[in-house]
Amino acid sequence: MWGFIVDRIGSRKAADIKEALVVSLPSPILRALNNRIVNFVPQPFYAKSAIFVHVPKAAGTSIAVSLYGSRVSHQPAELLRKADPQFWSSAYKFSVVRDPYERVLSAYHYLRIGGTEEAPIDDRRDMRDVDLSTFENMIYWLEKNFHNIRKYNYVLWPQYWFVCDQAGRIMVDDIFKVENMPDLQRELNARGLISGAIPHVNASRNSNKSARDILDEDIKRRIFSMYRRDFEMFGYMS
Q: Which domain holds residue 180?
């Protein structure tokens, strides 16, 4: 049934409906509906007893394909816990974050090309008023609209929104960094969740230079101001 709904209205609108249901319904009802009518918690999570909180634009597709054999949606930890508190308590929970400079630059290229075949931008939150003519113009636009950023595509949301509860407490067992993928590979291999390395499945920009080298100081200052909590919480230098 849920697959039919997704086919009819698109993955982004379906995800919005799913999120609204998780927010509004009590946990017992969500558990009764879960994986019967709506997959609030992706079925592959149960098979592995591992919950991957997928932060957008942080190598998540590569990780999900290696671990589960398929992509998984971008659901905040708090919603996953509410959908099935018992499973949340027993499963291994982890997430992966990325240098905010790299992530916002990657997000720009992703938005500029219109998303991916699986999740085109037209099927996502309204982005028509976003200035994507240049990266700098997107940052200027972002500054003016950051107070209302939840309205827009979640590749622009702060990373801590995905892994923290409303009080700002980290909810997952481990947080790894894209820049230190061997740490994640060792942990998942040690737990018997994967075998071998994690391949790079998705890439929205192709450059040998880091964002820190490419971006000028004014733009970096603006990005830091908006994503300051990501920098500080996850140990990234400004």
A: 2-98+159-190
**Shared-domain flag, residues 107 and 51:** no
Rounded Cα–Cα distance for residues 10 and 173 (Å): 32
Tell whether the torsion through CA atoms of 199, 204, 210 and 211 is positive or negative: negative
Residue 44 has pLDDT above 70, yes or no: yes
Query: Does residue 3 carry a pLDDT above 90?
Result: no
Same domain, 44 and 125: no
Find which of 4-8, 73-77, 137-141 is predicted with most confidence, using mean pLDDT. 137-141
Residue 6's pLDDT is: 59
Claim to verify: residue 85 and residue 55 sit in the same structural domain: yes
Cβ–Cβ under 8 Å, residues 216 and 222: no
Q: What is the average pLDDT across 228-235? A: 98
Q: What is residue 196's three-state secondary structure?
A: coil
Tokens for 151, please give them. Answer: 């309205």
Instruction: Tell me the pairing of strands 50-53 and 92-97.
Output: parallel
Beta bridge partner(s), residue 177: 97
Average pLDDT of 207-229?
Answer: 93
Same domain, residue pair 113 and 221: yes
Decide if 55 contacts 170 (C-beta within 8 A): no
